[in-house]
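Q: I'm writing up a methods section and want to include an example of the input and output format. Could you take the sequence below and give the corresponding predicted structure tokens, formatted cleanly so I can copy it straight into the document?
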Amino acid sequence: MKKLLLLLFTVIIFIACEKKPQRYFAESTEIETLKAGIKAYESGDWDTWKSHFADTAKIFVNSIKPITAEKD
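A: Here is the clean output for your methods example:
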């Protein structure tokens, strides 16, 4: 029984210590998009900054008709 528990413990530790693949790198498309967004925000280029976001949100203000961010 002790050997079985020791074997189980060893397997659990081996699985927990397994190397996981790196998700993000120093140079990737996600990081470049983020850097471009920060640069556009700091320079006040709002059209470029807004181009990094999808216009899928619907905002309802006391109405059943949605408005967009472009509408005043």
